[in-house]
Specification:
single chain, about 650 residues, alpha+beta, four-stranded mixed beta sheet, about 10% strand, globular, disordered N terminus
């Protein structure tokens, strides 16, 4: 691997032994390359007799086939990318968020060009409607959620091994933002130990037959090597989500043979799996694309790359056999073929896990079982109740989207929820018995109905025993309306402190005084009214008419929504608000595409929003529309 610097263009050309070249054109790209180098430099080869093999010490991957003992880690990605020769440029692009929090630019850059599996370039894409087709496709790494799902489907390991990885930076708000996927030392070390554990489990005596049926008939070195080659040729394409290139399986067999001299069959095979799991091909989702007839501004994901895009969008996991077959047939090079497979994936129960994961990150419910409240002030609340609250919201959304009307406005106006006997008792709802969650109708006398009256959504944003309408209002404005509110800094930050709980009888009185400062009013004029409308619910989400003997005033008047009185009126207004619907679509695009959206992508964003509107704001139709946008169907010709 060589780096050829071009002074005239200030570019460094990385050339691999496969004939590929990648031009690094920006400081951002160099930094991302360094992050990738941090990962590959720390990934260690499998063990032999308790010690690392020195012969592999400077080879980030056994798949280099001994061509080079020391290789640039970014170039390694190209070397094992699985495509034929390609030439591409890497360029950085600015990003603007959609109100979901900050991010850091630290992901490895992705390359462009090349040919892949399936039908060659020139397939039909939708005609360009917008004047700009600018999009981004940064290199994405498996998240903890995706890693767990992938090893579950690949080797039936349900131990959630990726939970040992450090927590992801939120970035776009969902933890899968490619621009926030820095590789820290702790993560690289865990990649090594987790790969070892997963491989050991997959090759344990009770599971070896499922992984390698031929293992039962091996009798000598030749039959062992043949068996391992069979495993390499069948298992690795699934793990790496692409067809192997000539010689790649031989490289894995060579590793097995080298280790077999000092270990038994199972341990040596486990070491091969370790190498597969530590490879960037497993940990990342590289895309090289293929040419599109009549287009020079974009490329098209290959069939296998599109299969990966689809499976991780809807399942958070690897493609299944049907999706791999569709990729090989060329079906995934057509928008209608992509939609057909998207419909199949969305109908599978695994899609519900992804929807649940999305809402766990969008809504303040993921940590309800760890929420702490004063047991004297709030005796009805406990960690178990918190867990049941989360289950209520998850079940409600799943049933509404997949079995009910399925519209986002309907989520705010639904006159039912799901509860079991214990949670119903917490709410004071009669007639519910048993441990199982069941549909419970709600009428005006219950003061409930819709997402924002569920106790978990009400309790989740509040992190103390004292009422705080500001944090509830901030959740509504930022997460449900995509109106970013900058966190105060400097002298202003010193002024932003919660008011004394004893300074007034009600939270409205306390926070109205707190927010009357002209410096603070600009933000609070929109946040606070939403929080005030929810003040009939205490910090654990139970209904109350009074606070400290004073009747609660739940009226609100927010410039971005208008006037409303109480939670039910506010939700009805949110259900009819176009910003709420647009925000929901934007959140799904950011999550589905694994990055923040740029201003330059307004055309692609608008096409999805328009389809969502035209389909009556049906959530499943929105999820299908994600796969029909230019951002999903293409790659930029000039890559990051």
């Amino acid at each position: 691997m060589l780096c050829r610097f071009e002074p005239a263009t200030q570019r460094c050309i990385l050339s691999s032994w496969f004939g590929r070249e990648l031009a690094l054109t920006s400081v951002t790209t160099w930094r991302r390359a360094l992050h990738f180098s941090e990962l590959v430099g720390r990934l260690r080869p499998p063990k032999k007799s308790g010690k690392f093999l020195e012969v592999h010490a400077h080879r980030p991957s056994v798949l280099t086939q001994r061509v080079c003992k020391s290789v640039s880690s970014l170039a390694l990605l190209l070397a094992v990318g699985g495509a034929a020769a390609c030439t591409g440029e890497v360029a950085s692009g600015g990003m603007n968020g959609v109100g979901q929090g900050g991010s850091s630019t630290s992901a490895a850059g992705s390359s462009s060009g090349g040919t892949g599996s399936g039908v060659a370039g020139g397939a039909t894409l939708p005609p360009q409607v917008c004047t700009s087709s600018v999009t981004r496709a940064p290199l994405r790494r498996l998240t903890r959620f995706e890693y767990n799902n992938t090893v579950r489907d690949l080797v039936q390991d349900t131990s959630l091994p990726a939970n040992a990885f450090p927590s992801e930076e939120l970035g776009n708000g969902f933890g899968n933002d490619a621009d926030s996927q820095a590789v820290v030392g702790a993560l690289a070390e865990q990649y090594v130990s987790v790969a070892e554990k997963v491989a050991a489990t997959a090759t344990s005596p009770e599971r070896l037959a499922a992984l390698a049926p031929c293992a039962a008939t091996v009798t000598d070195a030749a039959s062992e090597a043949a068996c391992v080659k069979t495993v390499a040729e069948t298992f690795t394409p699934k793990a790496w989500r692409r067809t192997l290139q000539p010689g790649e399986a031989d490289g894995l067999v060579a590793l097995f043979t080298e280790l077999r001299g000092a270990s038994d069959f199972r341990s040596s095979l486990a070491a091969v799996l370790e190498a597969i799991f530590q490879s960037p091909e497993f940990l990342y989702k590289p895309e090289f694309g293929t040419a599109v007839a009549g287009r020079t501004d974009v490329k098209q994901p290959t069939g296998e790359e599109m299969a990966t895009r689809l499976s991780y969008l809807y399942w958070g996991s690897m493609p299944d056999e049907a999706l791999r077959t569709a990729a090989a047939s060329g079906e995934l090079l057509r928008p209608d073929g992509v939609r057909l497979q998207a419909q199949r994936l969305l109908a599978d129960p695994k899609a519900r896990d992804v929807v649940r994961f999305f809402f766990d990150n969008l809504l303040p419910i993921s940590s309800l079982s760890q929420l702490e409240r004063d047991p004297v002030q709030y005796p009805a609340f406990s960690a178990k109740i918190g867990s049941l609250m989360r289950t209520e919201t998850q079940t409600f959304l799943e049933k509404e989207i997949f079995e009910g009307p399925g519209t986002w406005p309907g989520v705010f106006t639904a006159q039912y929820t799901y509860a079991n006997e214990e949670l119903a008792r917490f709410y004071g709802l009669p007639g519910v018995t048993g441990e199982a969650f069941q549909k419970v109708p709600l009428d005006p006398s219950t003061h409930r109905g819709g997402l924002l009256t569920q106790a978990g959504v009400l309790a989740g944003p509040v992190h103390s025993n004292h009422e705080n309408p500001v944090v509830r209002g901030s959740f509504v404005v930022q997460k449900l309306m995509c109106r970013p509110i900058p966190f105060p800094t400097g002298d202003i930050a010193a002024m932003v402190t919660p008011p004394d709980p004893e300074s007034a009888k009600t939270a409205r009185q306390r926070f109205t005084t707190h927010s009357s400062n002209p410096v603070c009013k600009g933000c609070h004029v929109n946040m606070d009214p939403f929080g005030f409308a929810l003040e009939n619910f205490d910090v654990v989400g139970q209904w109350r008419d009074q606070e400290n003997g004073v009747a609660i005033d739940a009226s609100g008047d927010a410039p971005i929504l208008g006037k409303f009185n109480g939670a039910l009126e506010m939700q009805a207004a949110l259900a009819e608000n176009e910003d709420v619907q647009r925000c929901f679509a934007t959140n799904w695009m950011s999550f589905g595409y694994g990055r923040k959206l740029t201003d330059a992508e307004e055309c692609a964003v608008q096409s999805v929003r328009d389809t969502f509107r035209d389909k009556g704001y049906n959530v499943q139709e929105l999820l299908l529309a994600l796969t029909q946008s230019e951002a999903f169907l293409t790659l930029p010709a000039v890559r990051e």
